[in-house]
Amino acid sequence: MGEALMADDGTARGCFVCRKHRDDSLMPGGAVWMDDLVVVSHLSPQAPGGAGAVYLGHLLVEPRRHAPGLADLTEAEAQRVGVWCTRAAGALREAGGAEHVYAAVIGDNVPHLHVHLLPRYPGTPHEYWWQRVDEWPDAPRGGHSKAAAMVERLRLHYSLHYSDEAPPPHRG
Fold first, then answer.
1. CA angle, corner 143, sides to 30 and 109, nearest 5?
2. Are 110 and 86 in contact (CB under 8 A)?
């Protein structure tokens, strides 16, 4: 991104990820967790290409600073993204009911790094594992309110297991 497109806070004008970091109403239930370098959120029905219902538990781990890909992260951001991916995957298993969590970085549609964490729930037929996990007709889906409820469950899990660090308050 050219400097002319960058805002003073290190975010890019026109980037949906940067915009939702500034306006957490674009994140169902607000941020799941955040710190000074990373934001963890639930996939939003308002995301580019989004639909009214989203796959519940589909989390995104994103650096706050506009960084297009993994190679663009600072060492500190890379470490923090890894830590948050691990914590979020654990919360999806323990509090979200997932039996497995997939992780992927694609980067084709939105030029701001976001690691997708996709839970696989018990009973998911083998033919829907991995890339098709959210295509399973019986997969748990919901709009803003159901995604926000998932965020609250994950936030509670976080507060019980990482009491030394405060999760973000719900502002949505």
1. 75
2. no
The rounded distance, in Å, linking the Cα atoms of 52 and 47 is 10
Per-residue pLDDT tens over the stretch 107-155: 888 899 999 999 999 999 999 999 999 999 999 999 999 999 999 999 9
Cα gap 147→109, rounded to integer Å: 22
Provide CB contacts within 8 A for 21, sequence distance 6+.
11, 39, 62, 64
Instruction: Judge if pTM exceeds 0.85.
Output: yes
Tokens of 115: 């690691």
Residue appearing with tokens 């960058």: 6
Would you give the DSSP letter of residue 58?
Answer: -
- State the virtual CA torsion across 66, 133, 85, 30 in degrees, nearest 10: 60
pLDDT tens figures, 43-58: 988 877 767 889 999 9
Whole-angstrom CA distances from 122 to 61, 85, 127, 143 are 23, 21, 13, 21
